[in-house]
Design a protein that fits this description.
This protein has six helices and six strands; from the N terminus they run E-E-E-H-E-E-H-H-H-E-H-H. With 202 residues, it is of the alpha+beta class.
């Protein structure tokens, strides 16, 4: 175990489970838009394969993401969050700018597969399969441009889960967080609606 120097001090070690919250820049409510919620969940699916972590629960709220996650041996929690945030920001901005013609070859999702990851993990499933669909849905819905450039806050909050009781508390907090924020009863963007993405038990 060692202490990482960051804006929040983080403890890294084997078998740690983390409760994590990461927010959008200036708490802008990008995730009121279902297209962006669906894209974020697609990115979670891909990152789970590439970074090989255990995901126990998640919820997407208008201006933040909650995760309950256990890193594997190769990638720590900071590397996992860095990947999720980087890929999500790039792809949401791809969608936002698609109808402006500002798309460049270097912006496509294959970028994440370069170098070591490319040689070890290449698979077409690591490219968001619905990205072009999301783009066209967005254009239809927003003929103008109502969104600023997507950005996450630079850091994130993390809490190391102490024991089974602590795990249960954070699990319940995560899956029921949409209710706390008065989101609709049929809000789909939590792990309660994606059982195939999460681990069954601690």
């Amino acid at each position: 175990m060692f202490l990482h120097r960051d804006s929040q001090k983080r403890f890294y070690g084997q078998d740690y489970v983390y409760f994590v919250v990461t927010k959008t820049s200036d708490n802008y409510p990008y995730f009121r838009e279902p297209i962006f919620c669906e894209l974020l969940i697609e990115e979670l699916k891909i990152c789970e394969q590439l970074k090989r972590f255990k995901l126990y629960a998640f919820s997407v709220i208008c201006d933040h993401l909650n995760l309950l996650v256990q890193p594997g041996d190769e990638y720590n929690i900071s590397k996992i969050l860095q990947s999720i945030k980087k890929e999500t920001a790039r792809d949401i901005n791809y969608i936002i700018n698609y109808h402006k013609g500002h798309i460049h070859k270097g912006d496509i999702p294959e970028c994440r597969l370069q170098g070591e990851q490319y040689s070890r993990h290449y698979d077409q499933t690591f490219i968001v399969p619905k990205l072009s669909i999301f783009c066209h849905e967005f254009i239809k819905k927003y003929p103008g441009q109502p969104f600023p450039k997507f950005q996450w806050q630079k850091s994130f909050y993390s809490h190391v889960v102490a024991n089974d009781s602590d795990f249960e508390n954070h699990f319940n907090y995560t899956v029921h967080n949409p209710e706390k924020h008065n989101l609709p009863a049929d809000w789909q963007y939590s792990s309660l609606h994606y059982p195939e993405l999460v681990e069954v038990s601690f």
